[in-house]
Amino acid sequence: MKVFTAAQIYKADTFTIEKQQITSDALMERAATQIFNWMHVRMQGAPVKIHLFCGIGNNGGDGIALARHLFEHGYDIAVYVVKYSDKRSKDFLTNLDRLKDRKIWPIYMDADSDLPEIHPNDIIVDAIFGIGLNRTPDAWVAKIIQHLNTSKAFILSVDIPSGLFTDSVPEDKEAVIKANYVLSFQVPKLVFFLPETGIYVEQWEVLDIGLDAEFLMNEKTDFELISKNEVLQFYRPRTKYSHKGTYGHALIVGGSYGKMGAVILTSRAALKAGSGLVTAYVPECGYAILQTAIPEVMVLTNGKEAIEAIEFDMKPTVIGLGIGMGIHDKTVKALEHFLKANKLPLVLDADALNILSKNQDQMDFIPENSILTPHPKELERLVGKWKDDFEKLEKVRQFTDKRKVVIVVKGAHTITFFEGRGYINTTGNPGMATAGSGDALTGIITGLIAQGYSSLQAAIFGVYIHGKSGDISVENTGYQALIASDIIEGIGSAFLDLFKVPEERPDTSEKDG
Ligand SMILES: NC(=O)C1=CN([C@@H]2O[C@H](COP(=O)(O)OP(=O)(O)OC[C@H]3O[C@@H](n4cnc5c(N)ncnc54)[C@H](O)[C@@H]3O)[C@@H](O)[C@H]2O)[C@@H](O)CC1
Ligand SMILES: Nc1ncnc2c1ncn2[C@@H]1O[C@H](COP(=O)(O)OP(=O)(O)O)[C@@H](O)[C@H]1O
Ligand SMILES: [K+]
User: Which of 57, 224, 349, 403 could cross-link to 322 by cystine, CB 3.0-4.6 Å?
Assistant: First the structure.
């Protein structure tokens, strides 16, 4: 699913209005009707107090139109208009009149208004600001937002949590609604997925308001959301007359005294992801460990307690490099020699990234289309410090452009970057913040490249499978007890899940009642 910028959403609006020959008011009515249906299906007329906080722009207009639908279906509502500006939008005013026609009188709020009492069991609809927010809300509006945030009531945000910009992080962190649920029109927003701004969105869902399908399909975006549908498009089925040679040979280079487990995890994950053959390249102290832990994996050794040279007499399809490798002087030299001679695609992780960060001149020897999988600290060493999430994304984009590599920015929503585009993952959970979970990911991605997936596909698909496996495994373990080995065990279930038919969505068509 594409992630549009605010400018692109406004463009889609205009395009749709012209093409479908409808008014902007009709589009607002669609939006409000969709939200009403969503609520009505879940609430079934329940006598819960619903407080609708509406701004004076189109987001507020959505809220006012929603209030009318809720009223007409017998819900107990209170409508507040937060008058943060005199420039009220046309469609807001139209809907305000419709509300007044039904003898509903909103409570107007300005800097001097008292804050209404809100019971923890009430519901708040947040329609103060939408994607039109262009400066930090005034202090008195921020006070209202804080009041709602501390109310303990369930907050349903219309389109985007009020106070959240679409293209920058908030200056005043207290002036943003912390939404329990966001109903986002047509497309999700990038800020739902970044560490500094995603914290305002507990759950989100997209509501289809019928923006022009052709426009949505043709418009190019900088970001795409990756779910099952997207990865299924490049899934490669196995063929009947294939053999292990068909599925490649992954070489996993890494390990040092005390860190051999990392190589076990990566090698095992590469096998589980489907690599035909896997060889681990480790220092001698890892030989017995590897051979005992995973019988399916072949082992080559070099150096005693750390790798001193990377030389082998075999032809791997792909090399995963750096896990648990350490940064011993001899290992650093070995990597430099290896990189100068190597032509194979690489998946670089952990200490390989740390070494390269300190020796940026060696970056020139990284083959194009290689994949780098840094966690936040490794990324900072690689691209330098950033002031906020947006600068981070820009730095990564520039790095991938310059080096022609894929960068997998790991996190709650891992984002894979290539050729100026970011692919946002939707699987995974906090249980995966555990030792060795990144090693498992490196193995999965390496195993996929071995089988013939392109670097970009392997990175996107690998990240998806890794997260999905974590999601399936956590059902049995809970967050705390999930460990990297569980993620590797779950890889098979994650592949099987690709072909499960999704459960039917709840019926959101309008019902009387
Ligand atoms: N295609 C879509 O997504 C549709 C969007 N609609 C709604 O339209 C919203 C966007 O509406 P608007 O463009 O009117 O913008 P908003 O309703 O987000 O904001 C209203 C206006 O307030 C002003 N403003 C911004 N920041 C301010 C601040 N800190 N203090 C005071 N004033 C400030 C701006 O001029 C802005 O246009 C969307 O979020 C959505 O809710 C729907 O009505 C219809 C279809
Ligand atoms: N809160 C989270 N939600 C989802 N995934 C997470 C979360 N925290 C970490 N992960 C995932 O777990 C992995 C951690 O990788 P990394 O930090 O390199 O671990 P290690 O170095 O221990 O192997 C990454 O793939 C990351 O996306
Ligand atoms: K809002």
Answer: 349
Instruction: Give the residue, by CA position, lying nearest to ligand 2 atom 19.
Output: 438
Please report, as a single letter, which amino acid is at residue 345. P
What is the pLDDT, as a whole number, of residue 504?
A: 65
> Atom 9 of ligand 2 has which residue's CA nearest to it?
433
Select the CATH number that applies to the domain covering 2-221 from these four: 4.10.375.10, 3.40.50.10260, 3.40.30.10, 1.10.357.10.
Answer: 3.40.50.10260
pLDDT digits (tens, 9 = 90+) for 381-424: 999 999 999 999 999 999 999 999 999 999 999 999 999 999 99
Is 130 annotated for ligand binding? Answer: yes
Alpha carbon of 126 to ligand 1 centroid (Å): 13
| Atom number, ligand 1, closest to the C-alpha of residue 62 | 43
Mean pLDDT value across residues 460-464: 98
pLDDT tens, position by position, 138-195: 999 999 999 999 999 999 999 999 999 999 999 999 999 999 999 999 999 999 999 9
CATH no., domain 248-495:
3.40.1190.20
Residue 340: C-alpha distances to residues 229, 281, 333, 366 (Å):
39, 18, 11, 9
List the residue whose alpha carbon is closest to atom 1 of ligand 2: 430
Give the pair of three-digit tokens for residue 284: 């001698």
Pick the residue whose CA is nearest to atom 15 on ligand 1: 132
CA of 126 to the centre of ligand 3 (A): 5
Work out the average pLDDT over 56-60. Answer: 97
Protein residues whose CB sits closer than 6 Å to any atom of ligand 1: 9, 13, 27-28, 31, 55, 57-62, 84-85, 89, 129-137, 158-159, 185-186, 209, 211
- CA-nearest residue for atom 5, ligand 2, is 412
Kindly provide the ipTM of the predicted complex, given to two decimals: 0.91
State the ligand closest to the CA atom of 179.
Answer: 3
Atom of ligand 2 nearest to the CA of 440: 23
Sketch the domain layout of the chain as residue ranges. Answer: 2-221, 248-495
**AA letter at 477:** T
Query: Which ligand has an atom closest to residue 126 CA?
Result: 3
Three-state SS sequence of 336-354: HHHHHHCCCCEEECHHHHH
Q: pLDDT per residue over 90-133, tens digit each?
A: 999 999 999 999 999 999 999 999 999 999 999 999 999 999 99
The reply to whether 26 sits in an annotated binding site is no
- Residue 242: what pLDDT? 86
* Residue 365 CA from chain centroid, whole number: 31
User: How many A from CA of 60 to the centre of ligand 1?
Assistant: 8
What tokens appear for 270 in the block? 């590469």
Measured between alpha carbons, how far is 73 from 58 in angstroms, rounded to an integer?
23
pLDDT in tens, 325-374: 999 999 999 999 999 999 998 999 999 999 999 998 899 999 999 999 99
